[in-house]
Each structure stands twice: as C-alpha cells, then as structure tokens.
Design brief:
By secondary structure, this protein is of the alpha/beta class. It has 3 domains: 2-343, ABC transporter transmembrane region fold (Up-down Bundle); 358-440 and 524-534 and 552-605, P-loop containing nucleotide triphosphate hydrolases (Rossmann fold, 3-Layer(aba) Sandwich); 445-520, Rossmann fold (3-Layer(aba) Sandwich). The protein has 24 helices and 10 strands. It has helices at 2-11, 15-37, 39-47, 62-66, 68-79, 81-129, 134-139, 142-149, 151-164, 166-184, 186-192, 200-233, 235-240, 244-296, 302-343, 404-409, 434-438, 455-459, 469-478, 482-487, 505-519, 535-549, 584-590, 593-604; strands at residues 364-375, 378-389, 393-398, 419-424, 427-428, 441-444, 523-527, 553-557, 569-574, 577-582. The strands form 2 sheets. Strands 6-7-8-3-9-10 form a 6-stranded mixed beta sheet. A hairpin with a 2-residue loop joins strand 9 and strand 10 (577-582). Helix 9 runs antiparallel to helix 15 (302-343). Bound molecules: adenosine-5'-triphosphate and magnesium ion.
Length: 605
C-alpha cells in the first residue's frame, strides 16, 4: 500500500490534469449509461403491444407517482412513432460522439500524466545514482543499473497508466451498470450478482503471483542487459579470442531464461480471463433463467429483460478488464519496488550534516593508522601511517594488488577508511563537504576516463571555465598533447567517441593529464599516469608534471621506478601494509623491499 502511495505521490503534482481526466471518465460513464438506459423504456413505449396495461417499463416505484402522465407520454410516442425514432437516432449519435470526445481528452491526459511521472522518476533515479558512493557501483553490474533506470521505470510506468486510467475508470462503469441493473429489477439483480464478490478471489490471487513473477522477469532482463553491455563493450576481446559463438550461446541461454520467466507470467495472465468468464457465465445463466421466468409471470417486460441482460453482459467487460488491469499493475509494482530500492539506497560516504568548507590545503596530508576493507573483515590496507607536506612528491610503490590505488582513492573519499583517519591540514576528511574536498584534488586514474564529447570539453571537464580556450590549449601543450590534437580533423572540437575510443591509449592519458593540469589542484594524484606513453613522450610529460607538482602535494603511483627516484618520500606497501618509507638513497641503503623491487626492475631493463 505504501508503495502505491509513493507512486501516486509522483502523480500528485499533476492532480489538476488527473481531476479533469477523472471528470471526463465520469461523464463518459454517464453518457454510456444514458445511451443504454434511454433506449429501453422508449422502445417499450414505441413497440409495445396495444392495451392500457402496456406501460413504459419504468421502475414500479415511479409509476404511481407519474400516473396519468405515463399514459400521456405513451400516447405521444405512439402518435409520432417515426419522428421519435429519428430523434432517438440523432440523440444516440450525439451521445456516442460526445462520449468519444470525452474519452479522448481523458485518455490523453492520463497518458500525459503517466509519461510525466516516468520522466520524473527517471530524473530522480539518475540524480540519486550520482549521489551514491563508488561502492554501490562496484557491487553491481552496469547493465543492472541501466536496467533500473530504463526497463524498470517502463514497467512502473505501465502500472501508473493502468492505475490512473483503468483502475479509476472501470469502477465508475461498474457502479453505473450495477445501479442500472437494480433499477430494472432489484431482485433479479441481486440474484445474478450473487457470484460477483467471488471475482475478487482470482483477481487478488493472480495479482500476487504476477507480482512475484514480474520481479523475476525484471531481474532476468537486467542480467540480459548486463550481458549485452559486456559483450558489446568487450567486442575487441571477443573477436580476438574467437569467442563469438560462446557469447552467442551465453546470450541464448540467458534469453531463454527470460523467455521462461515471461511465460510464467503469461500462464497466469491468460488464465485470469477464462476464469472470469466462467464466473460470468454463472451470473448470466442465473439471469436468463430467473429473468425469463419473471417475463412469463408478467413481472418483467421483454424489453426490460433484454436491457437487463445487455447491462449484465457489459458489466463483466469492466470486471474482466479490472482483473487484467490488476495483473498489469502488479507487474508494474514489481518494477516500482526495484526503482524504490535504488532510491532508498543511502550513500556510504555520507556528508556530515554540519560539514564545512575545506580551505585550500597548504600544509599537510596525514594518514593516521588507516585501515580499509572493501568487504567486512578482509582488510586491503592496514595501519597506514604517514604524513606528506605541501610541495612534496610522495611516491607509492609496491607489487600489483597491494593496495596502492585503494590508498589514493581514500583521499577524494571514494571510500572512507574502515579504521583510522585522514587529515588535510589537520582537518578530518569526514568533517568537510565532499564538494570542497574534491575541488582540491586532481586525479589521473589508472584507467583513463573520457567522455563522448569534444577534446576541449574533456580537458575542461568539471571546470566552469569551459570556454577558456587559451588555458585549455596551454594545458594540452604542457601535457604534450598539443601535437596530436592539431592533427585531428576538428582539432580541439573533435569528438572522441564513447570512452574516447577514437584515441590511442597514450593520447587518452595525455588528455587526462591536461585535465589535471587545467584544474590546478592543491593535491594531485597520479595513478600510473604515464604508463601508456613511450619513453620519449613520458619524459616530456614528466617535465610538465614536475612543473605541475611544485607547490602542491602530489601522490604518484608508478611501476617504472625511474619516475619515483626523485620523489621526496617513497612509501613502500606490501600486502596492504606500509613496510618502508624514505628517499630513494635511504631505501636503497636499507636493502629491504624497495631495494628488491628496484633490483628486479633493473634486471628487466
Ligand atoms: N572493489 C573492490 N572490491 C573488493 N576488493 C577489491 C576491490 N578493488 C580492489 N580490490 C582488492 O584490493 C586489493 C588492492 O587493490 P588496488 O587496486 O588498490 O591494488 P594496486 O596496488 O593499485 O594494484 P595495481 O598496481 O595492479 O594497480 C587487491 O587485492 C584487489 O583484489
Ligand atoms: Mg592500482
């Protein structure tokens, strides 16, 4: 129930349109009832046999009230049979036309609201995703997340559409028709509607099943979406290893699972209509039998009998539809649940309610007994304790997988330390706003992240000086990227494709370095920033970086120890622990881990 309310809350801003739409539904229902109801008494009057006993088939209760009047109307009808019939035809046409128009307005508005709600939910969802911490994304597949914003919202949208349109309309139609039945002959109505409450049982049961199975379908769909994502982005490797057939089989298997899951819904869904029809048959049989008997006894005119049967038959249309609508709504609510699950996620790296602005860092960066575990209990970093001063270059070295990237990822608070704390100028990172913290950190990450935008915009990413062409070019020049950018068809305005696919690895890295140079942050993190460059390009970039490193604190991770030698402080990690720290000569003299690393590299070279 809470979920319905939550969903309807999204519709609340559009309540004006919903009200108009419901108004139109009401009018349409009235017109519908009118088109049925107006015919029957008049037809009796028009075509009924001679004789004063033959009255308009008005409800008995009304007849004495109208008394003499009824006879007079009847006389009038008989006298002007043809013109009354013509009038009736026109009247009917007008009513049906009006109904069609009112229906149009109502359907249009409901669809508008449903689509608007979906768009709003998508906006909310995507916005919320960006408030979540990196950890959320690492624990889930991209396809899964994409699927929540697309397929799941679509499913939810179907629920909104049906909730607003049919779930609101059909009850009106039902109530109108039930009233009509009771007006015609209330005992007969009672008898033939006895079965009516029973319809609730299959509606509810089918709905529950469909909700559960709907969730399965969405999960399958998300898995499929992940598979597609992986298969397409990894196409290079798929082809290189000749894995096309394997990928196709993998897809076929998942696709077939999705199909099975959908069929499990279809089985229930298609069952609901026949079940409702059976219940309907019982009601109609009762009405035929009992109604026929009443006609024989002269308690019901044949016209009223036909009208009754007509109304009863049309009553089951909305009931059947309501059951189908409930199935759809339940499927949609499965999507809504998944959407709300994401919306209810709180970022692990939360900003303190009284977080303050971090003033520009100009003294120290301190790690105090920092420990970190991605998963509870499995520590990747332990007891990291050191201090870096402004202007210093801190190199972090160690074997692959010892936690170097993890260590530097703690600085911009992609993750928070599991133990200990990190201080900038003596201020705990947890006490400052994320924006003011991250504004002071420039990062060139291990895998270069670029966007499908122009070179200029990629370099200026996140900076307000988007138009400052001169500065962008200066940054590119320092990053040794100017030359290749010049050679591109549109220079700085060249679009580089998704993730920068139209650039080489080294070119991408230089764009990322230019980005960091332009940002000009007090704290700079270079995680294998030059690993994809050749020796000559690296030397040039290195020069630029050295200029960049002045007057700020720089953390450098590099496999090539040549870039590490001139660091002011070398932090050596082994299995997540800080085992050595010092300058190159000091560590060489100590003949420990660093010495071994260095020796190994010399041998390779
Ligand atoms: N998201 C994650 N969830 C769980 N464990 C992770 C995650 N990311 C990294 N790890 C683990 O943490 C350890 C440290 O990883 P990290 O990326 O910090 O190593 P690294 O020193 O940067 O290695 P490299 O030199 O290869 O880049 C690794 O053993 C890795 O398996
Ligand atoms: Mg790394």
């Amino acid at each position: 129930m809470a979920q319905y309310l939550r969903l309807l809350k999204y519709a609340l801003p559009y309540r004006g349109r919903i009200a108009i739409s419901i108004g139109c539904l009401l009018i349409a229902s009235l017109l519908n009832a009118l088109s049925v109801a107006s015919l029957q008494p008049v037809f009796d009057g028009l075509f009924g046999g001679e004789g004063s006993r033959q009255l308009l088939s008005l409800p008995r209760a009304l007849q004495p009230l109208l008394g003499d009047w009824v006879a007079r109307v009847q006389g009038f009808l008989r006298a002007h049979q043809m013109s009354v019939l013509t009038f009736l035809a026109w009247f009917l046409l007008a009513v049906l036309l009006a109904k069609a128009m009112v229906n149009y307005v109502s359907v249009y508005l409901m669809k508008y609201v449903a689509e608007r709600v979906m768009a709003d939910v998508r906006d909310d969802l995507y916005g919320h995703l960006h408030s979540l911490s990196l950890g959320f994304f690492l624990r889930r597949n991209t396809g899964e997340i994409v699927s929540r914003v697309t397929a799941d919202v679509d499913a939810l949208g179907a629920a909104v559409t049906d909730l607003l349109r049919n779930a609101l309309r059909e009850p009106f139609t039902i109530v109108g028709l039930v009233i009509l039945l009771f007006v015609i002959h209330w005992q007969l109505a009672l008898a033939s509607l006895l079965i009516f409450p029973m319809t609730v049982i299959p509606i509810v049961n089918f709905g529950k099943k469909i909700r559960r199975r709907g969730t399965r379908v969405l999960e399958r769909r998300a898995e499929l979406s992940t598979l597609i994502q992986e298969g397409i982005t990894g196409i290079r490797i798929v082809q290189a290893f000749g894995m096309e057939e394997y990928e196709r089989r993998r897809f076929r298997a998942k696709n077939s699972e999705l199909f099975q899951a959908i069929m499990r819904i279809v089985r229930v869904d298609s069952l609901s209509s026949p079940v409702m029809e059976m219940l309907e048959a019982v009601g109609i049989v009762v009405a035929v039998w009992l109604g026929g008997y009443l006609v024989f006894r002269g308690e019901l005119t044949p016209g009223a009998f036909m009208g009754f049967l007509g109304a009863l038959a049309s009553l089951y249309v909305p009931i059947k539809r309501l059951s189908a609508v409930n199935n759809n709504i339940q499927r949609g609510m499965a999507g809504a649940q998944r959407v709300f699950d994401v919306l209810d996620q709180r970022p692990e790296v939360a900003e303190h309610p009284e977080a303050r602005q971090l003033p520009p860092v100009n003294e120290t960066v301190t790690f105090e007994q920092v420990g970190f575990a991605y998963e509870p209990g499995r520590f990747v970093l332990r007891d990291i304790h050191f201090q870096a001063k402004v202007g210093e270059i801190v190199a972090i070295v160690g074997a692959s997988g010892t936690g170097k990237s993890t260590l530097v990822n703690l600085l911009p608070r992609f993750f928070d330390p599991t133990e200990g704390r990190i201080l900038l100028d003596g201020v705990d990172l947890l006490e400052v706003t994320l924006a003011s913290l991250r504004a002071q950190i420039g990062m060139v990450t291990q895998d270069t992240i670029l966007f499908d935008d122009t070179i200029a915009n990629n370099i200026a990413y996140g900076l307000s000086t988007r138009g400052g062409t001169a500065r962008i070019q200066e940054a590119a020049r320092l990053a040794n990227a100017e030359e290749f950018i010049r050679d591109l068809p549109d220079g700085y305005e060249t679009r580089i494709g998704e993730k920068g696919v139209r650039l080489s690895g080294g070119q991408k890295q230089r764009i990322a370095i230019a980005r960091a140079i332009l940002k000009d942050p007090p704290v700079l993190i270079l995680d294998e920033a030059t690993s994809a460059l050749d020796a000559e390009a690296e030397r040039l970039v290195q020069e630029a970086l050295e200029r960049l490193m002045r007057n700020r604190t720089t953390f450098v991770i590099a496999h090539r120890l040549s870039t590490v030698i001139q660091a002011d402080k070398i932090v050596v990690l082994e299995d997540g622990r800080l085992v050595e720290m010092g300058t190159h000569p000091e560590l060489m003299a100590a003949r420990g881990t660093y010495f071994r690393l260095y020796q190994n590299q010399l041998q390779e070279a």
